[in-house]
Design brief:
It contains 6 helices and no strands. It is mainly alpha-helical and 111 residues long. Helix 5 runs antiparallel to helix 6. The radius of gyration is 18 Å and the shape is globular. The two termini are 28 Å apart.
Length: 111
């Protein structure tokens, strides 16, 4: 029996339409590019927390942690997943709809 994640593109095209398969995080992460989305999200986060007027002790801790300052360096997706609510609050505070939209996509597709 073969794994559906290995044949997701072929299986999605079996209807003969040749249409590109929809992404489905429950089958595989193929086509989602979660790492690129996470990098983009962290650039949105850093735009605010690197500004001394918008940072606080929590965000300073996140910056330190992102560099591996308190153990192994976590990847961006892990940091986002671990701090999803705080990141959402940051973007809501600044009414950053673009970043909130990306955060919603990451939460739905990658976390």
């Amino acid at each position: 029996m073969s794994c559906p994640c290995n044949n997701s593109i072929a299986a999605a095209s079996e209807d003969g339409s040749g249409a590109k398969p929809a992404t489905d995080r429950y089958v595989s992460f193929i086509g989602l590019d979660c790492d690129a989305k996470a990098r983009e999200m962290m650039s949105h986060v850093r735009r605010y927390i690197d500004d001394p007027q918008h940072t606080n002790a929590f965000w300073e801790y996140v910056k330190k942690k992102s560099l591996g300052g308190s153990g192994p360096r976590p990847d961006d997706l892990f940091l986002i997943h671990s701090n999803l609510n705080q990141i959402r609050e940051l973007f809501e505070l600044h009414a950053d709809e673009k970043a909130l939209s990306l955060l919603d996509r990451i939460e739905q597709e990658c976390c």
